[in-house]
Amino acid sequence: MIMHIDMDAFFASVEQQINPALKGKPVIVGARDNKYYTVVTAASYEAKAYGIDSGMPSREAFKICPHAEFVACDSAKYTYVSREIFGLLADFSPQVEHTTIDEFDIVLDGLEPLFGPFLDIGKRVKNRIQEAFGLACSIGIAPTWLLAKLGSKLSKPDGLVLVNETNLDAFIRGVPVEKICGIGPALTGHLHGLGILSCDQLKKTPQEILVDNFGRATGHWLWAALRTDENLTWQKSLPAGRQGQIEARKTPKSVGHSYTLPREISDQKIIFAWLRMLSEMVAERMRKYGLAGHTVSLWLSSKNESSLRQKTFQIPTNDGWEIFMRSKGIFSQKKAYFRTVRALGVSLSGLISDAAPPLLIEQKRRGDLIAAMDQINARYGDWTLSPAILGLVNPTSKDK
Description:
CATH architecture of the domain at 249-397: 2-Layer Sandwich
Distance between the termini: 43 Å
Number of strands: 14
Largest sheet: 5 strands, mixed
CATH superfamily of the domain at 249-397: DNA polymerase, Y-family, little finger domain
Number of helices: 15
Strand order of the largest sheet: 5-6-1-7-8
Order of helices and strands: EHEEHHEHEEHHEHEHHHHHEEEHEEHEH
Helix content: 25-40%
CATH class of the domain at 249-397: Alpha Beta
Shape: globular
CATH topology of the domain at 249-397: Dna Ligase, domain 1
């Protein structure tokens, strides 16, 4: 069984917790610190009640709710809280993984003798997070990651739901197919064209029809998505090009990070800034594991398509700059197809122990520099030192 934990209105809730004057008020977290010339990165539930949501131009949001409180996005703050929550969850199980900055997964198998039934474990997790951080979360528990993710989404805010074979059909009845993670606008339109509007309709559709209309990989994924006997435990069942499996081991097979942008982005400077941040996040985790990787994978998603491409290099690395340059090279091969980007991810695989000493003086100097940055960031907080380009995606880092 998988527990998927999704923090509720994470960025806005963190800001409300840090500044009590914001509690109970509609809060808009802007991607930049200019109140009227940015987009909404996150909105509190008080703001969502007015119809404000992420990706909306802030000028439009303030027309809807002129009295909304505005806070500029501070990614270092949210990253810190996210890692603290991760540490708290590790008290329950060593099999914990980040899905995104505000989502986490725990393998529950074997925890019942220690913490009781699955729903009791969910209540314990919710209470611990609330007590430690003052933040609410929604939790879905299910035999597959996809159903656990769906459960957390449908139980928002501050919800807890257990999905199993007994209640699955009732749980998905009437739920729009686009609520399933991995079904975007294009796939939704195609399903609607076949008369498949809800999850229960999708579950009843024969596999042959789905394969005939969507191809073998995506067709089988659609057929298996709402079944409890497919892709068990940690398997993250996503459409072709986004398949992956979280490795619940001390030594991972791959290390990656992804991010969904507040809207479709065409500015390559912004895209590369996010690519650099994700590369640095991957590199930092690799160094903590004492590993380096040969293969760089780049996942890109836009309104029209999603693609995963990778390249293996002879020399392994755990240097954020090197990972960025390699993934940037992969991106340049796809730019003709991705004029805009909505989400992106970077990962390293082909991992080996990073025990070999540097051969060249330049390599040793670079290694010493990275080690010094890691020490400073560990002592004073994430992103105390960071690449200057990250100022494009984190307004608070302009002076770093």
